[in-house]
């Protein structure tokens, strides 16, 4: 999804984030300067539906004008696992092999037991910037 707040506001003569912030506050949605800056100039990671409703009411627009679908960014069926493996640099098989190797080392006596456990690998972020959950 593409966040299109700035263009939607400009189409209605609102050129500054502070102008929109005041209009939103008049409708009961008080937004901090930091959050407003993120909404105005960035792509929010999350936004409450109630906040979207107020923004649409202030701008007199539909949600489809603020959130523009980008289906080309969605992997095709069967591509999702490969896409995720490429994004993280590992696949599910690699993680399973690593766990099996660790268990084998512990059973063979090459490790020192619970104190020998290595820290989990740092997993890169997803293409959309969000971090992945731990294994």
UniProtKB/TrEMBL annotation:
It comes from Actinomadura vinacea. Residues 4-72 form the HTH cro/C1-type domain. Residues 94-106 have a biased composition (Basic and acidic residues). Residues 69-135 are annotated as: Disordered. InterPro entries: Cro/C1-type_HTH (IPR001387). This is HTH cro/C1-type domain-containing protein. Pfam families: HTH_26 (PF13443).
């Amino acid at each position: 999804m593409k966040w299109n707040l700035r263009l939607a506001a400009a189409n209605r003569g609102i050129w500054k984030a502070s102008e929109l912030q005041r209009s939103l506050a008049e409708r009961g949605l008080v937004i901090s300067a930091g959050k407003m800056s993120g909404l105005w100039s960035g792509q929010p990671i999350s936004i409450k539906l109630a906040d979207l409703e107020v923004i649409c009411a202030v701008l007199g627009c539909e949600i489809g004008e603020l959130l523009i679908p980008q289906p080309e960014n969605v992997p095709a069926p069967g591509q999702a696992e490969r896409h995720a493996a490429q994004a993280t640099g590992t696949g599910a098989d690699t993680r399973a092999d690593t766990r099996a190797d660790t268990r084998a080392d512990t059973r063979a006596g090459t490790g020192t037991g619970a104190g020998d456990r290595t820290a989990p690998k740092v997993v890169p972020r997803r293409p959309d910037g969000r971090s992945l959950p731990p294994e």
